[in-house]
TrEMBL record:
Compartments, record wording: Cytoplasm
Pfam families: PEPcase
Known partners and oligomeric status: Homotetramer.
Matches recorded under SUPFAM superfamilies: Phosphoenolpyruvate/pyruvate domain
Protein's UniProt keywords contain Transmembrane helix: no
Name the record gives this protein: Phosphoenolpyruvate carboxylase
Keywords in alphabetical order: Cytoplasm
GO biological process, one term: leaf development
Length: 233
Protein backbone atom coordinates (compact mmCIF):
# COMPACT_ATOMS: atom_id res chain seq x y z
CA UNK A 1 0.00 0.00 0.00
CA UNK A 2 1.48 3.34 -0.99
CA UNK A 3 2.40 6.14 1.38
CA UNK A 4 -0.25 8.32 -0.24
CA UNK A 5 -2.98 5.85 0.61
CA UNK A 6 -1.72 5.48 4.17
CA UNK A 7 -1.83 9.23 4.61
CA UNK A 8 -5.31 9.32 3.12
CA UNK A 9 -6.56 6.74 5.64
CA UNK A 10 -4.95 8.37 8.67
CA UNK A 11 -8.31 9.33 10.20
CA UNK A 12 -9.74 5.82 9.93
CA UNK A 13 -9.34 3.13 12.56
CA UNK A 14 -7.09 0.64 10.81
CA UNK A 15 -8.38 -2.60 12.28
CA UNK A 16 -10.46 -3.61 9.27
CA UNK A 17 -7.71 -2.75 6.82
CA UNK A 18 -5.14 -4.65 8.88
CA UNK A 19 -7.33 -7.74 8.75
CA UNK A 20 -7.74 -7.63 4.97
CA UNK A 21 -5.93 -4.66 3.39
CA UNK A 22 -6.41 -5.89 -0.18
CA UNK A 23 -10.08 -6.77 0.18
CA UNK A 24 -11.67 -3.87 2.04
CA UNK A 25 -13.56 -1.23 0.09
CA UNK A 26 -11.66 1.85 -1.05
CA UNK A 27 -14.56 4.00 0.10
CA UNK A 28 -13.10 5.77 3.13
CA UNK A 29 -16.44 6.89 4.52
CA UNK A 30 -17.85 3.37 4.35
CA UNK A 31 -14.76 1.83 5.94
CA UNK A 32 -14.81 4.41 8.73
CA UNK A 33 -18.40 3.54 9.60
CA UNK A 34 -17.58 -0.16 9.45
CA UNK A 35 -14.64 0.39 11.79
CA UNK A 36 -16.69 2.41 14.28
CA UNK A 37 -19.38 -0.27 14.47
CA UNK A 38 -16.79 -3.06 14.53
CA UNK A 39 -14.92 -1.58 17.52
CA UNK A 40 -18.03 -0.89 19.58
CA UNK A 41 -19.40 -4.35 18.80
CA UNK A 42 -16.19 -6.03 20.01
CA UNK A 43 -16.16 -3.96 23.21
CA UNK A 44 -19.58 -5.26 24.20
CA UNK A 45 -18.73 -8.75 22.98
CA UNK A 46 -15.74 -8.83 25.34
CA UNK A 47 -17.79 -7.48 28.25
CA UNK A 48 -20.69 -9.89 27.91
CA UNK A 49 -19.13 -13.00 26.37
CA UNK A 50 -15.48 -12.95 27.47
CA UNK A 51 -12.14 -12.82 25.69
CA UNK A 52 -12.26 -16.44 24.49
CA UNK A 53 -15.50 -15.95 22.56
CA UNK A 54 -14.20 -12.63 21.25
CA UNK A 55 -11.12 -14.37 19.84
CA UNK A 56 -13.28 -16.99 18.11
CA UNK A 57 -15.48 -14.31 16.61
CA UNK A 58 -12.45 -12.38 15.31
CA UNK A 59 -11.26 -15.54 13.55
CA UNK A 60 -14.61 -15.88 11.76
CA UNK A 61 -14.67 -12.21 10.74
CA UNK A 62 -11.06 -12.33 9.54
CA UNK A 63 -11.90 -15.40 7.47
CA UNK A 64 -14.89 -13.63 5.92
CA UNK A 65 -12.90 -10.48 5.10
CA UNK A 66 -9.89 -12.25 3.62
CA UNK A 67 -11.56 -14.92 1.48
CA UNK A 68 -14.20 -13.07 -0.57
CA UNK A 69 -14.84 -16.18 -2.63
CA UNK A 70 -11.23 -17.41 -2.90
CA UNK A 71 -11.13 -20.05 -0.17
CA UNK A 72 -7.84 -21.90 0.30
CA UNK A 73 -6.95 -24.99 2.30
CA UNK A 74 -4.97 -22.82 4.70
CA UNK A 75 -8.04 -20.66 5.25
CA UNK A 76 -10.15 -23.65 6.16
CA UNK A 77 -7.49 -24.96 8.54
CA UNK A 78 -7.56 -21.65 10.38
CA UNK A 79 -11.21 -22.38 11.17
CA UNK A 80 -10.46 -25.82 12.57
CA UNK A 81 -11.09 -24.67 16.13
CA UNK A 82 -14.72 -23.96 15.25
CA UNK A 83 -15.34 -27.66 14.67
CA UNK A 84 -14.62 -28.36 18.33
CA UNK A 85 -17.09 -25.83 19.73
CA UNK A 86 -20.00 -27.10 21.76
CA UNK A 87 -23.53 -26.23 20.54
CA UNK A 88 -23.86 -23.27 22.91
CA UNK A 89 -20.62 -21.60 21.78
CA UNK A 90 -21.49 -22.31 18.14
CA UNK A 91 -24.76 -20.42 18.56
CA UNK A 92 -22.97 -17.44 20.13
CA UNK A 93 -20.38 -17.22 17.33
CA UNK A 94 -23.00 -17.67 14.60
CA UNK A 95 -25.42 -15.09 16.01
CA UNK A 96 -22.58 -12.61 16.54
CA UNK A 97 -21.31 -13.07 12.99
CA UNK A 98 -24.82 -12.51 11.65
CA UNK A 99 -25.22 -9.40 13.79
CA UNK A 100 -21.90 -7.95 12.60
CA UNK A 101 -22.92 -8.51 8.96
CA UNK A 102 -26.14 -6.62 9.66
CA UNK A 103 -24.15 -3.71 11.07
CA UNK A 104 -21.86 -3.72 8.03
CA UNK A 105 -24.94 -3.65 5.79
CA UNK A 106 -26.29 -0.67 7.74
CA UNK A 107 -23.03 1.23 7.25
CA UNK A 108 -23.10 0.48 3.53
CA UNK A 109 -26.79 1.37 3.26
CA UNK A 110 -26.30 4.82 4.81
CA UNK A 111 -23.25 5.63 2.69
CA UNK A 112 -24.76 4.43 -0.59
CA UNK A 113 -28.08 6.15 0.11
CA UNK A 114 -26.41 9.55 0.34
CA UNK A 115 -24.28 8.89 -2.70
CA UNK A 116 -27.33 7.84 -4.74
CA UNK A 117 -29.29 10.93 -3.72
CA UNK A 118 -26.56 13.11 -5.15
CA UNK A 119 -26.37 11.18 -8.42
CA UNK A 120 -30.10 10.67 -8.99
CA UNK A 121 -31.33 14.26 -8.96
CA UNK A 122 -33.24 14.67 -12.22
CA UNK A 123 -35.68 17.48 -11.51
CA UNK A 124 -38.61 15.06 -11.39
CA UNK A 125 -40.82 13.23 -8.90
CA UNK A 126 -37.96 10.87 -8.04
CA UNK A 127 -36.13 13.75 -6.33
CA UNK A 128 -38.85 13.95 -3.68
CA UNK A 129 -38.58 10.22 -3.08
CA UNK A 130 -34.82 10.54 -2.54
CA UNK A 131 -35.04 13.59 -0.28
CA UNK A 132 -32.95 13.33 2.89
CA UNK A 133 -35.56 14.94 5.16
CA UNK A 134 -39.18 14.11 5.85
CA UNK A 135 -41.94 16.60 5.10
CA UNK A 136 -45.70 16.80 5.41
CA UNK A 137 -48.04 16.58 2.42
CA UNK A 138 -48.39 20.36 2.12
CA UNK A 139 -44.61 20.91 1.94
CA UNK A 140 -44.23 18.06 -0.53
CA UNK A 141 -46.91 19.38 -2.88
CA UNK A 142 -45.45 22.88 -2.68
CA UNK A 143 -42.01 21.62 -3.70
CA UNK A 144 -43.45 19.65 -6.58
CA UNK A 145 -45.45 22.58 -7.95
CA UNK A 146 -43.15 25.51 -7.17
CA UNK A 147 -39.65 24.03 -7.31
CA UNK A 148 -40.09 21.21 -9.82
CA UNK A 149 -42.67 23.12 -11.89
CA UNK A 150 -45.18 20.25 -11.96
CA UNK A 151 -48.77 21.03 -12.81
CA UNK A 152 -51.57 19.99 -10.42
CA UNK A 153 -52.71 17.48 -13.04
CA UNK A 154 -49.25 15.84 -13.16
CA UNK A 155 -49.13 15.61 -9.37
CA UNK A 156 -52.61 14.08 -9.28
CA UNK A 157 -51.70 11.49 -11.92
CA UNK A 158 -48.54 10.59 -10.02
CA UNK A 159 -50.50 10.10 -6.80
CA UNK A 160 -53.06 7.90 -8.57
CA UNK A 161 -50.29 5.60 -9.77
CA UNK A 162 -48.74 5.11 -6.33
CA UNK A 163 -48.78 1.51 -5.09
CA UNK A 164 -48.38 0.02 -1.63
CA UNK A 165 -47.13 -3.51 -0.97
CA UNK A 166 -48.38 -5.19 2.22
CA UNK A 167 -46.68 -8.25 3.66
CA UNK A 168 -48.78 -10.11 6.24
CA UNK A 169 -47.15 -12.72 8.43
CA UNK A 170 -48.01 -14.67 11.56
CA UNK A 171 -44.50 -15.96 12.15
CA UNK A 172 -43.82 -16.53 15.89
CA UNK A 173 -40.55 -14.59 15.68
CA UNK A 174 -42.25 -11.46 14.32
CA UNK A 175 -41.94 -9.61 17.64
CA UNK A 176 -38.22 -10.36 17.81
CA UNK A 177 -37.79 -9.29 14.21
CA UNK A 178 -39.63 -6.05 14.90
CA UNK A 179 -37.33 -5.33 17.85
CA UNK A 180 -34.26 -5.91 15.69
CA UNK A 181 -35.63 -3.66 12.95
CA UNK A 182 -36.21 -0.90 15.48
CA UNK A 183 -32.69 -1.32 16.86
CA UNK A 184 -31.19 -1.22 13.38
CA UNK A 185 -33.25 1.88 12.57
CA UNK A 186 -31.77 3.68 15.59
CA UNK A 187 -28.24 2.70 14.59
CA UNK A 188 -28.95 3.85 11.04
CA UNK A 189 -30.15 7.19 12.37
CA UNK A 190 -26.94 7.60 14.36
CA UNK A 191 -24.85 6.91 11.25
CA UNK A 192 -26.96 9.38 9.30
CA UNK A 193 -26.23 12.05 11.91
CA UNK A 194 -22.53 11.29 11.69
CA UNK A 195 -22.63 11.58 7.92
CA UNK A 196 -24.48 14.89 7.99
CA UNK A 197 -22.02 16.36 10.50
CA UNK A 198 -19.01 14.90 8.70
CA UNK A 199 -17.58 13.31 11.85
CA UNK A 200 -17.62 16.42 14.04
CA UNK A 201 -17.04 16.76 17.79
CA UNK A 202 -20.58 15.50 18.33
CA UNK A 203 -19.53 12.07 17.06
CA UNK A 204 -19.06 10.60 20.53
CA UNK A 205 -22.52 11.65 21.68
CA UNK A 206 -24.13 10.18 18.58
CA UNK A 207 -22.13 6.96 18.77
CA UNK A 208 -23.07 6.58 22.44
CA UNK A 209 -26.65 6.10 21.28
CA UNK A 210 -25.49 3.41 18.88
CA UNK A 211 -23.47 1.67 21.57
CA UNK A 212 -26.52 1.26 23.76
CA UNK A 213 -28.18 -0.68 20.93
CA UNK A 214 -25.35 -3.21 20.82
CA UNK A 215 -26.27 -4.52 24.26
CA UNK A 216 -29.50 -6.19 23.14
CA UNK A 217 -28.11 -9.19 21.23
CA UNK A 218 -25.69 -10.12 24.03
CA UNK A 219 -28.35 -9.85 26.71
CA UNK A 220 -30.55 -12.12 24.61
CA UNK A 221 -27.70 -14.58 24.06
CA UNK A 222 -26.97 -14.80 27.78
CA UNK A 223 -30.58 -15.00 28.99
CA UNK A 224 -31.85 -17.28 26.24
CA UNK A 225 -28.72 -19.32 25.61
CA UNK A 226 -30.10 -22.45 27.28
CA UNK A 227 -33.41 -22.14 25.44
CA UNK A 228 -31.61 -21.78 22.10
CA UNK A 229 -29.49 -24.80 22.89
CA UNK A 230 -32.59 -26.92 23.56
CA UNK A 231 -34.18 -25.70 20.32
CA UNK A 232 -31.13 -26.63 18.27
CA UNK A 233 -31.02 -30.11 19.79
Amino acid sequence: MSGRNLEKMASIDAQLRLLAPAKVSEDDKLVEYDALLWIDFLIFFRIYMGKTSEKRFKIVMSFQLTTKGSVTLKSWRSLGMLNSLDPGDSIVVTKSFSHMLNLANLAEEVQIAYRRRIKLKKGDFIDENNATTESDIEETLKRLVVKLKKSPEEVFDALKNQTLDLVLTAHPTQSVRRSLLQKHARIRNCLTQLYAKDITDDKQNSMRLCKERFKLPFVLMRSEGLLLLHKMR
